[in-house]
Amino acid sequence: MRWTVYYILAYVALGFQIGLSPYVRYQGAEPNLALLAVIYIAINAPRDAALLAAFGIGVLQDLLSAQQPGLYALSYGLVAMFVAGAQHVVYREHPLTHFSLALVGGLVTMCVLVLHDWLIPPLKATVEGHTVIAAVRVSPATLFTGALYTAVLAPLLIGGLQRVKGLFNFKPQRRRAKPW
Amino acid sequence: MSYLKFNHVFVGLMVLSVITGFILPQRRANQIHPEIQALFAPVASPVGGIARWLHHKFAPDVSPDKRPDEDIRRENLKLSIALSQMTSELQQYREMDLERSRMGSLKDRCTIFPVIGGDPGTRESLQIRGSSLEGLREGMFALYGDGGIAGIVQRAGLGGAQVQLITDTGFRVRESIVRLETKGNSARIVSVSVPQALAIGIGRNRMVIENITYEQAQQIRVGDMVVADEPDWPAELKGRYLGHVTAVGKRPSAPQFAEIRIEPRETLLRLRDVLVITKDR
Predict the structure, then answer these.
(1) Is the whole-model pTM more than 0.80?
(2) Which of B120, B172, B210 sits opposite A21 (nearest CB)?
(3) I need a labelling partner for B241 at 20 to 30 A (CA). Which of A88, B54, B176, B275 fits?
(4) Which residues of A touch B121 (CB under 8 A)?
(5) Rounded to whole angstroms, how far apart are CA atoms B164 and B16?
């Protein structure tokens, strides 16, 4: 895999995510363009490169988000493990593959974020005077809407990226056979 | 790298992410967190600019305030009267207290920082193009427009800074609810609820108050203004605008308490720049 092209993809995906997110929100949910980049790399790249690349995008997204660092890196690592494991049994060019993998990826990310919020809520339950204020968490419904939103965009964006697959040179490097 | 070795490295990275994500306290995790927001500005700023233009052109923000125009005009008139009265009162106080008049307005102590974009995750924060070299520090207050509070600088480093918005999930601030009351030609701003009620950010550009009884909330009306009244914040932020009441109802889990929804007039995630109070008095 050409790592320079990967860096450009990660940079552009996250740049678009930051710039677009305030304007494309629907009911508080936004599409996750970085996740689409992760899935695109994971269905095409060799396993090791795919895992590292996905983890790297997660780390960058963690550095840019107000969330606790590590959550996106963990999520994308898990997503890449799943997608890279399934890459030989899926039809990589089919829009339905892109949709379903993006939905599964979104749900994995959602599970990690919900689990984190459940264990460590942004605001823990407190007592104010005589009133108990319940813990405040990010709504799972919003996260699910975000996963669906991302999945709907997947055929368009991953399908577009599949046309420039050659730039990434995803084929694994063949080892030279040792001469006898 | 052999297959076995790579797996070891990858498992190590995943364990590290679990530690930083689930075990390390966020404050500690933020200390080892480099700021890289400014690196993404060359892509995020033009993309955000185009998205903003398209948004204003095809789907402009609709105000949550559904009152008829006539009511709003009447309120504007009342506000003008109240403002003129308050300006004259303020002038008297300034003349009485020369030390205070030398302080200057809060805006003089602010630095404007352009917004690069929103949060790439699920939270409500702004990436701003500013750095610790320009005086940005964690915990500084960010204002917008005519002095409404946008949020607090959550992290600041050499490569950028992040502002946690007041509407971010879990943000908490004590507030008061005020209303403009008029009698004849005179107008005044009066407090309409128990002071220092707790407003909590719940995302989607909204906050909620849940620690007022439903009986106390009977006097609160949609359209009332919510202002900061946080004892831990600097005195000059007391009375600064947070939002407007958009709904008053019963709290579903405890009907004897009220659930009061608050929304700022502007969508905070779409601010173009923020004023951060970087200078001391």
Answers:
(1) yes
(2) B120
(3) B54
(4) 61, 64-67, 71-72
(5) 25
Question: Contact at 8 Å (CB) between A21 and A30?
Answer: yes
Domain count, chain A: 1
Nearest to B130 by CA among B164, B166, B157: B157
| Contact between A67 and B123 using a beta-carbon 8 Å cutoff | yes
More confident residue, A132 or B226: B226
Phi, psi of B135 (to 5 degrees): 95, 5
Cβ neighbourhood burial of A34 (10 Å; 0-12, 13-18, 19+): buried
Assigned domain for A150 exists: yes
Q: Which residues of A touch B10 (CB under 8 A)?
A: 48, 51-52, 55, 77
For tokens 């609160």, the residue is B220
In a domain, A177, yes or no: no
Distance separating alpha carbons of residues B23 and B16, to the nearest angstrom: 10
Q: How many CB atoms lie within 10 A of CB A159?
A: 15
A85-107 as b/e, with b when 16 or more CB fall inside 10 Å? eebeeeeeeeeebbbebbbbbbb
Q: Nearest-CA distance from A95 to chain B in Å?
A: 25
Answer yes or no: is A116 within a domain: yes
CATH of the domain at A99: 1.10.1760
Other Cβ atoms less than 10 A from the Cβ of B154: the count is 20
DSSP string, A103-129: HHHHHHHHHHHHHHHHHS-SB--EEET
- Tell me, what's the ipTM? 0.87
Does some domain include residue A75?
Answer: yes
**pLDDT (tens digit, 0 to 9) for every residue of chain B, 281 residues total?**
555 688 899 999 999 999 999 998 877 877 777 788 888 989 999 999 999 999 888 888 777 777 788 888 878 877 877 786 777 677 667 666 654 444 456 777 889 999 999 999 889 999 999 888 888 999 999 999 877 899 999 988 888 899 999 999 989 999 988 887 777 666 677 788 666 788 999 999 999 998 888 888 888 888 888 999 888 898 888 888 899 899 999 988 888 888 999 999 889 999 999 999 988 76
